[in-house]
């Protein structure tokens, strides 16, 4: 069959199934019904004369042929984004979608700390804030970057230092508890923030609540559930809290930017990364 019969919709279909691991998930992304996804996948497999996905208890998994198509489709998607950027830049109007992933509290800091001005200066830019990890790939339909403390890069992504974020121990102003609340990341349980209560107390800390996000922990500390290690940029000016640790006990955590090599030259990504670097002090220092 002629190559012209293979179209862009086949690329989007392949990547949607791969990224969600199911036909129903792909249907949600593509905004079509699941039966249509199934029919289009069957037609694509017939056209290529290859089985692309196998159903399993874990969902829909790619075959070896499917993995090849997924990899090449991802390359084509990134090339299409680069074409878009090049054309927009030629007209001196960099814009488009940039996905920015991170913990919810770090994303909230961006919104409160100048994102409105960034968008005002770049009218054609759309920033999509996504709370969560990148999964198998940082790239997901659009150029993406992430800000994380201790998360390994994925899919050829790499990390660069953004800055040191100071943390300190706080308690509620009206209550002096002896128990703790603590960070906990199921995907990275050995991170330094999760281990802090045990290290601080020589292994005797009684942790009564754990959460993945600093905003939840701050609320827990403010309501007297326990002592907690909190970002000073969030906690230092909260009238409900008192800092317990002295300056010499301050914990500095390295915040990283995760970038994908295929998006480094994207003007829209450069706009966001430059803003993050320039705004770091206002965003994450007390």
Automatic annotation (TrEMBL):
It comes from the Bacteria. Coiled coil: none annotated. One of its GO terms (molecular function) is DNA binding. Gene3D superfamilies: Winged helix-like DNA-binding domain superfamily/Winged helix DNA-binding domain. Residues 6-63 form the HTH lysR-type domain. InterPro entries: LTTR, LysR_HTH_N, LysR_subst-bd, WH-like_DNA-bd_sf, WH_DNA-bd_sf. Pfam families: HTH_1, LysR_substrate. Keywords: DNA-binding, Transcription, Transcription regulation. Belongs to the LysR transcriptional regulatory family. This is LysR family transcriptional regulator.
């Amino acid at each position: 069959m002629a190559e012209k019969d293979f179209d862009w919709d086949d690329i989007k279909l392949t990547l949607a199934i791969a990224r969600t691991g199911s036909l129903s998930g792909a249907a949600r992304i593509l905004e079509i019904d699941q039966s249509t996804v199934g029919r289009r996948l069957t037609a694509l497999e017939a056209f290529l004369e290859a089985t692309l996905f196998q159903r399993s208890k874990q969902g829909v998994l790619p075959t070896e042929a499917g993995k090849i198509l997924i990899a090449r489709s991802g390359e084509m998607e990134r090339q299409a984004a680069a074409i878009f950027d090049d054309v927009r830049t030629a007209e001196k109007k960099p814009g488009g979608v940039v996905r920015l992933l991170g913990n919810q509290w770090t994303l909230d800091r961006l919104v409160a700390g100048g994102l409105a001005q960034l968008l005002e200066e770049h009218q054609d830019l759309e920033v999509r804030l996504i709370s969560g990890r990148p999964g198998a790939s940082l790239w997901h339909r659009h150029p993406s970057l992430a800000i994380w403390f201790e998360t390994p890069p994925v899919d050829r992504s790499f990390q660069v230092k953004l800055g040191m974020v100071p943390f300190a121990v706080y308690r509620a102003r009206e209550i002096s508890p002896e128990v703790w609340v603590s960070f906990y990341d199921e995907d990275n349980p050995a991170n330094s923030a999760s281990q802090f209560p045990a290290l601080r107390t020589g292994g005797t800390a009684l942790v009564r609540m754990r959460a993945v996000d600093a905003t939840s922990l701050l609320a827990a500390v403010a309501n007297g559930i326990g002592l907690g290690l909190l970002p000073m940029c969030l906690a230092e000016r909260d009238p409900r809290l008192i800092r317990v640790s002295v300056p010499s006990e301050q914990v500095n955590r390295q915040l990283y930017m995760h970038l994908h090599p295929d998006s480094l030259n994207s003007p829209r990504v450069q706009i966001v990364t430059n803003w993050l670097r320039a705004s770091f002090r206002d965003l994450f220092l007390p």
